[in-house]
Amino acid sequence: MSETLCPRCSSTGAIEDYQGREDNIVVWTIYRCVTCCFSWRDSEPASTIGAGVRSADFAVDAGNLDRYPKILQQ
Amino acid sequence: MNDLANKARGISSLRDFLELLEGEGQAITWSERVLPEPDLRNVAVAASRDANGAPAILFDNIAGYPGKRTVVGVHGSWDNIALLLGRPKGTTIRELFFEIAGRWGDAEAQISYVPEGQAPVHECRVESGINLYDILPVYRINEYDGGFFMGKASVASRDPEDPDNFGKQNVGIYRLQVQGPDSFSLMTIPSHDMGRQIMAAERNGLPLKIAVMLGNHPGLAVFAATPIGYEESEYAYASAMMGAPIRLTKSGNGVDILADSEIVIEAEMQLGERVLEGPFGEFPGSYSGVRKAPIFKVTAVSHRRDPIFENIYIGRGWTEHDTLIGLHTSAPIYAQLRKDFPEVTAVNALYQHGLTGIISVKNRMAGFAKTVALRALSTPHGVMYLKNLIMVDADVDPFDLNQVMWALSTRTRADDIIVLPNMPAVPIDPSAVVPGKGHRLIIDATSYLRPDPIGEAHLVSPPTGPDIDALSKAIRLLQQGVAK
């Protein structure tokens, strides 16, 4: 399991999904959190991906995922 | 038929429309190198400040996405909508409304089928090793979105319980969040056709296969977002309204798709599975919450050579969302109301997908406008969206807010207001009591009529009509330095 920390729910284990390359040089990398499904690019501004900079209003509580409602229930 | 109208009827793809827009000064190419975030968002927001005249913007130099292209703002201004309808730049919103209302219906639809082997959308085909990031230059539309969204995808699907019925085939715009290289989630609500199909598939254990069309005929993009009846075909409406044939073909998974789309993603729903989706900056100008939404597995992708990924900026208005669907939200409400009440003269539901609507009506008797308002709430769109309704007389243009304010100021009494508590509401309305439930407001700003004991004051009657409209245009042209 990777040590990459999710900027939104602070879980570890994010997956590397894609690398943007130019002339075979990596320009940025896209990660995805397997706990809260947040995807991010490591070139994004700190307001979106910076720990401690990102607004806490948009944090996801990894310890209580049951609080998020399921849509289209029968 | 004039030249512009002929050009509009000749459009069969996004590329055709971009060429037409470019010729009219309404599409530009942004070749300066941009970062996916925040540059694409910033340019799109700056463009949408000009709701009347913003051009479509094609980006062809995005860091990390060499050779890939994305376009925003294709429907991002009233001038672009006018050109789509074959009308000149500068056509007023009111004129565009009546242009659309006059064409409303699907009686003249011309649907043609292109063999799959000849369809441009199938020029390139990926069936294994699928990675959406290889094809789509996605980016975060608003800074706290939960991921990378396809914000302007037209999703085609067949009714899982009646898969051979062409009319029940649905095409709708739903937000899609990329959930890894070959998966995405789809957000909808039970009242939308897609929500209905997902629930039917899960209830009966039936497969639900969909085709996600990106970069489409610009006429379909507006109809995919338009509330028409469940058994009516968006393709048929788009063709009839454009007055031109629509070319369809089959996706690899058996869904009818546009033959000239830039990209089509074929996918199958994972029955019963949900993943965290959102937030997403939505049309009320606020973020949706995080919810657990259905997930779809990509089974194949078709695309044209050098495809253009079309996306949208959506957030606090005005944005492309408002110009994309504003008039196509207003026109069906108008058509549906006029079936029962021919006294309705215009409907303006431009504001936040109709969260506020203004309806003008020839008031037959005191209180009549309130009756019409209640009928509006029971139209397919009104059921969930028409939250605030302002009713005005037929002598007030609902598209002219100065006139609407005049009616509010001079024709409204405090007891002419109706509040309907605890009604259905769009879950993403931030003013809802709880998501999905809220109050409705009707303001009757029509004049007093018998049997009301208080008569209308004697009105000043300034000159109105086509002559005055023509003079207004002449003034604007002179102001712009154009000869009359």
Automatic annotation (TrEMBL), chain B:
3-octaprenyl-4-hydroxybenzoate carboxy-lyase-like C-terminal domain ranges (all copies): 323-445
The molecular function GO annotations come to:
4-hydroxy-3-polyprenylbenzoate decarboxylase activity
Q: Write down any Gene Ontology CC term.
A: cytosol
Can you give the residue ranges of the 3-octaprenyl-4-hydroxybenzoate carboxy-lyase-like Rift-related domain? Answer: 114-316
Q: State the superkingdom.
A: Bacteria
Could you tell me the Gene Ontology terms of the biological process aspect for this record?
A: ubiquinone biosynthetic process
Q: Which residues form the 3-octaprenyl-4-hydroxybenzoate carboxy-lyase-like N-terminal domain?
A: 18-97
* Alphabetical list of NCBIfam families matching this protein: UbiD family decarboxylase (TIGR00148), VdcC (NF041204)
Put simply, this protein is called: UbiD family decarboxylase
Biological source species: Sphingopyxis bauzanensis
